[in-house]
């Protein structure tokens, strides 16, 4: 197969990756339309083979001693938290890797190409590519995954422009939304209960675009919710009962809502924190809940 030499190389790359992911055994959708299902984020849980089938005598992708082929049916195993390097050149359609996955983790992939290479990174249907040669690409696949039979995720790295080397690593980080050691759910049936307090390092990103929370209010009590995103990250606060939202449209800007209970009995005040626009690429936020 010829390398990406079309007028639209990124489109060809995406088509190739979709085909190889389908061959590699990625499943269909289920659950929320917004959220990627676990089968879309990972391949089958059968142990991958570390064998490399294409010998070039020149490349040494991830220390394999050769070129890692673009074959999602037999990706090359790497370890999380380890820095690797690879090469893409003429006739090299991409490099397929697999890494061990623990249920509930966020998998963050960082790829830094040499100055003459434009790199794209793909995991399931998610792709990171800014179209700039030498520009670092980051892709975090998040974590509405709670299945013990899923043990790995598969990654494709390919060039959409130029040829040369790249450095990469994959880091696994457990979610800790609401200090829960897990992910706050996205569906109405999966709402995380909070007590008044401060909750740091909550996470949103690809495959994890909504966190739902609730806090109990007594009659006449007032709740203040503050969501403070990290720099470069834009989020929205949404209040369920009034169907109102708060979003300044400024990355890194705090969003806040104040609401008073008007009921005669204890109620659960429910709210959501969402990603906005292009901020689907990952970020963290601090959540402050005050009840008076």
Keywords, separated by commas or semicolons:
292 residues; mainly beta; Jelly Rolls; 2 domains; five-stranded mixed beta sheet; 2 helices
Report on the structure:
This protein has 292 residues and is mostly beta strands. The chain folds into 2 domains: 9-174, Jelly Rolls (Sandwich); 177-291, Jelly Rolls, CATH 2.60.120. It is built from 2 helices and 18 strands.
Brief description of this entry?
The chain is mostly beta strands and 292 residues long. It has two helices and 18 strands.
| Text of the CATH class of the largest domain | Mainly Beta
Number of domains: 2
Oligomer status: single chain
What is the overall silhouette?
Answer: elongated
Q: What portion of residues belong to β-strands?
A: 35-45%
- Give the ordered list of helices and strands: HHEEEEEEEEEEEEEEEEEE
Low-confidence stretches: 1-7, 18-56
How big is the Rg?
21 Å
How are the SSEs placed, and which strands pair?
Elements: H1 9-23, H2 38-41, E1 76-78, E2 84-88, E3 95-100, E4 105-113, E5 118-123, E6 126-128, E7 137-141, E8 152-161, E9 164-174, E10 192-193, E11 197-204, E12 210-217, E13 222-229, E14 235-239, E15 244-246, E16 255-260, E17 267-275, E18 283-291
Parallel strand pairs: 1-3, 10-12
Antiparallel strand pairs: 2-9, 3-8, 4-7, 4-9, 5-6, 5-8, 11-18, 12-17, 13-16, 13-18, 14-15, 14-17
